[in-house]
Amino acid sequence: MHTETLQSRLAFLREAEQLKDVLRSGHTSSGRPESTAEHTWRLCLMALVFGDALPGLDPLKLLQMCVVHDLGEAIHGDIPAIHQGAHPDKGEREREDLRHLTRMLDTAPREHIRALWDEYEQASSPEAQAVKALDKLETILQHSQGKNPADFDYAFNLAYGRKYTDGHPLFSALRALIDADTTRRMVGEESPQPPPRGT
Could you point out which of 54, 150, 161, 182 has its C-alpha 20 to 30 Å from the C-alpha of 136? Predict the structure, then answer.
């Protein structure tokens, strides 16, 4: 690979690093605001651990789509799910931001990333539909697990993303478990937490 190609791919990675600083409306279990990069990481982890329950889907494509699904947010940030109705141009803006972000890449990776994002955005394949469902589930899982502000709207989560999560037995089953955690949070109970570190 030519040095110029290596340099252009490094330039892309340097600019994509901004995603680490894009904060979302949810919080971690310690109370720190969650970043989009952290959401993307756990979405990838979900695709990995539940991939065996999605026969016929391409596991590599699932992971690749997870990695790029919010990449455009590196430019203009995240719009919280609860506010997305006020931004009907969200998809167009993110696509333009992704085009800007990938501009310095050579043709093959640039077109591959853009095609994966378009496929995800349009939910035009079984893999894209699965990633859409997992994306919604990861969001509500974090909301049910995070140490959120006192005025956090847990009720929103009970309807969020059902268009994608109600279409497959795996996603419906996960949804029921996470919704139960959300309901507990709504009445002031804590959701199950992982064991303390070092045990």
Answer: 150
